[in-house]
Design a protein that fits this description.
This protein folds into two domains: 5-104, Immunoglobulin-like (Sandwich); 116-142 and 177-290, Thrombin, subunit H, CATH 2.40.10. The strands form three sheets. Strands 8-9-10-13-12-11 form a six-stranded antiparallel β-barrel. Strands 4-3-6-7 form a four-stranded antiparallel beta sheet, with no helix packed on it. Strands 1-2-5 form a three-stranded antiparallel beta sheet, with no helix packed on it. It contains four helices and 13 strands. The chain starts with a strand and ends with a helix. By secondary structure, the chain is an alpha+beta fold. The structure holds zinc ion. Zinc ion (ZN) binds next to loops.
Length: 291
């Protein structure tokens, strides 16, 4: 029998409003009915803070959930620390084993699935950014949980001892950022879009930008623009979209100083050859556009 995982839903049933510090996430999946008696199919749930499911950032939260003869829908309640305080987002996927081959489901988080017309808009935005108004950008998503404490943490104050620690970049967590994600960002957003975001007064060294639905970024995440070689930290974000679906993200970002520790670490974590290839491709797109 060929094992299939057809559907996966992830729903926050309790986000963990204070004083209750526990959140509850319902993970629900559908599989083709297990018909043969004596089935040995088992399910495991993997959870990650990144949709990339990096090996180091993926945990198996439960394994060995046995398939039951004739049962199609399975649920699991994941209890996590409060989700409200940290802008934390988990991605889930299901691994089915014990059939003729192992099956891994798509990953899912609790954001609603975009509807067809929303997908259409997202696709158009992606095209526009990649071919016209966007600049290649590596985004470093800050890890907000589940990271080992840095050696520089003072045991008494529980704070990072010095802000220029090259292990944690002053965050107090080792490996403070996920593997960077390459996407395209428009650093000269149309004025209407900024007005929708209602960011208010401009600070010096701050600019506005917009990008598409993926990756979902949050305040404190860092953008690296390889063509100019500058780093920006998100200070405010306004998602544009409706009913839980992000279509577009408008951000105010602040420039980091060359002397900041992030400059020593983050750009260097991207392989030089890859950076050059990205810049070269972008230059070619620009040339083609000028014709
Ligand atoms: Zn440190």
């Amino acid at each position: 029998m060929k094992l299939e995982i057809n559907r996966l839903d992830v729903l926050i049933t309790q986000p963990g409003f204070p004083p209750n510090e526990t959140a509850c996430v319902l993970v629900c999946w559908e599989t083709n009915a297990i018909r043969a008696a004596g089935t040995t199919v088992r399910f495991a749930i993997e959870r990650s803070l990144t949709p990339a499911f990096d090996e180091e950032d993926t945990e198996v939260i439960v394994s060995n959930i046995p398939a039951v003869l004739g049962q199609v829908v399975y649920t699991y309640e994941d209890r996590t620390p409060s989700l409200i305080n940290h802008w934390r987002r988990y991605f889930y996927r299901i691994l089915g084993t014990g059939a003729d081959r192992d099956v891994l489901s798509h990953h899912k988080t609790w954001e609603a699935e975009p509807r067809p017309y929303e997908l259409e808009i997202i696709n158009r935005h992606n095209y526009l950014l990649k071919n016209h108004t966007g600049a290649p950008t590596y985004s470093f998503v800050e890890r907000t949980a589940d990271a080992h404490k840095c050696v520089c943490i003072d045991p008494t104050t529980q704070r990072a001892n010095y802000s220029n620690c090259t292990l944690c970049l002053g965050t107090g967590r080792q490996r403070p950022f996920f593997r960077p994600i390459l996407h395209f960002v428009d650093y000269n957003p149309p004025q209407e879009l900024v007005q929708i975001a209602q960011f208010g007064e401009h600070q010096t060294k701050a600019i506005d930008c917009w990008f598409s639905a993926f990756p979902i970024l949050k305040p404190r995440d860092i953008l690296y623009r390889p063509v100019q070689g500058d780093l920006w930290r998100i200070v405010k974000k306004t998602p544009v979209g409706g009913q839980g679906v992000t279509i577009q993200q408008v951000c105010r970002v602040e420039a980091l100083n060359l002397s900041d520790v992030e400059f020593q670490k983050l750009p260097k974590s991207i392989p030089q050859a890859e950076l050059l290839a990205v810049i070269r491709e972008w230059e070619q797109t620009r040339q083609a556009r000028l014709w």
